[in-house]
Amino acid sequence: xIIQKLAKEFHIKISQVENTVQLIDDxxxxxxxxxxxxxxxxxxxxxxLRDLHERLLYLRNLEERKQEVIRLIEEQGKLTEELKxxxxxxxxxxxxxxxxRPYKQKKSTxxxxxxxxxxxxxxxxxxxxEITEGSIEELAAVYVNEEKEVHxxxxxxxxxxxxxxxxxxxxxxxxxxxxxxxxxxxxxVSEAADSEEKTVYEMYYNYSEAVSKIPNHRILALNRGxxxxxxxxxxxxxxxxxxxxxxxxxxxxxxxIFVTYLEKAIEDSYKRxxxxxxxxxxxxxLFERAEKEAVKVFAKxxxxxxxxxxxxxxxxxxxxxxxxxxxxxxILDETGKLLDFTTIYPNPPQNDIEKSKTVTKELVNKxxxxxxxxxxxxxxxxxxxxxxxxxKEVERKVYYTIVSEAGASVYSASKLAxxxxxxxxxxxxxxxxxxxxxxxxxxxLVKIDPKHIGVGQYQHDINQTMLNSALTNVVEDCxxxxxxxxxxxxxxxxxxxxxxxxxxxxxxxxxxxxxxxFTERKQLMKVSKLGEKAFEQCxxxxxxxxxxxxxxxxxxxPESYSVAEQLMQLLGVDHESIRQGGNKKxxxxxxxxxxxEPITMGLxxxxxxxxSLQDMEEIKGAMHAGAKKITNEERIRQNLxxxxxxxxxxxxxxxxxxxxLIKPGRDPREEMPEVIFRNDVxxxxxLKLGMELTGTVRNVVDFGAFVDIGIxxxxxxxxxxxxxxYIKHPMQAVSVGDTVKVKIIDIxxxxxxxxLSMKNLNN
Length: 763
Prior knowledge:
By secondary structure, this protein is α/β, with parallel strands linked by helices. It contains 31 helices and 15 strands.
């Protein structure tokens, strides 16, 4: 049942779901399944696989809860076949809980106390509505009992009404109908806790918006304001409409003498029990929705930041800006090795600009610096201005760029940083991290808890376990998508590789230090605690640049080496060409493979039907023209299918092997937008309305994108200014790290804010 449901929801074949579930249950990681089991999954992406896995867990938990609820109700002797069928057919957990609610053991309530006093039979008489003559007092008098603390007739009546109110509140059909009304017609309202106080929540001091329309970021803002005691938030529902529906459903005999009392019970049930419960539920549903979206946004932003292209083969000066304590400078060679470090004081209060310039120019010239990486934290723009002015006095061309330093301070003070650089102080480690983030963002950022990378919104207000899990998955997917060098990767990087935990990562480095560089992937089997399963999961993602087997430098999995060798032999490709960076002529060789026979079939004979040799040539030409309609891509696909059949291998795996032979160990980050380098700086005063600039997207949130255009604060492109076409979310058009063209549409000099537009520009 779960398999069929997943196939329908994800619009894929049942066999794809069955195979994927089996692979997951066999403890294969998502990156491994996505990359090396494409034949089994039908080529599902890592994103789809994770979504399917998450949904699988939900549906399995749902089934477990159904069975638990059935057992609990059955133990009470109250389970009917009809109720059991309703529970089994429930699609969501909320429906299961609604059905279980009347049978759930409750703490002491007004209704449970009334039942203990023997008033349940009276409640049943009232709800049956069969009596049309007499008085309720006469019926209630029978239930007056001093021993049971039913002292008066009113005690008996109101006790019975309490029981009825709780029954109404527990009715799953009523709750479902009221929930729908809340979701479609309720309004969320906020007001100031203190209207005189100036806070960042002033726009919400007298605010209301439909529950059905309120965007996620406003839900999170309201929650934060409420948690900080700055706002009072509530949900207002159409009470009269709800009471009308309840009365209509419950009061079936308008001639009954109990109508007035039932109306009181209905109103009490709604106002005292249902409304507060429903408000909590709706607020919770809204928050869960906003939370999931915030996690999704944070995860996508983190992915784009991690996949920022590395800036290779450059000598870098890393600068961690500051005021009082000075700017920490580190010098890194092309491999990220620390060559030198110092501190300069170009900013207030010292303002030692001339000496700082001298030191900076000396270092730039001494180490032939190519790029200066400046952190984007405190004093960033002042430091950027200083660097730009200093570079004008350097004869050789040197560029600078702004690098996000989010989490750098967390890393620099961490145990890991202390182990890596015990002789450096905290701030120098921060500068080192900034420089390395430019050279290889992924390798450096994995050293930091992903939630400290800081590309999202309200990350501290949402479920930290959910956030950590999502971000860990993102880091894992990115690291495995890129792959790592087995002989240079740090334990921080290795632990994100499929099948490798932190313990095995440390053991790999220990083996490397004791035995020397790895020369073959199969040596991994000698690493402590790295067994066959772990090897299967990790081997394809670990590269050996100059190993004994050229395929070890590629993403080809060792399980496919024999097929790869056969393919190489078939296409005339040797190991040396792979070592040299692949063979671009492989595509040509595949196109030539199994070339079609010369075109003779179907041509008319030279007898009566053929008038002249010229006619024959015309027909041949026409058929050849038709044959050319098959593109090279189609021909490659056709021939690869033939080769796959010949080698007895799946076509997706064969296609991946071919890509690796053409370009071994290709880096997917090369397809991402390149880093913007600058050699001059802008001030707010330099900007003019209508000015067009190129910038880097630093963060994407629900209401827009923040773009670094080279001034102190990032400019905001509101969602309404991102695209000419309607978009539901900024992520449909932009991502963190994108290079975009923007136009200035507003400048707020007082608050130092710049509004930007991407409309009618060729991005």
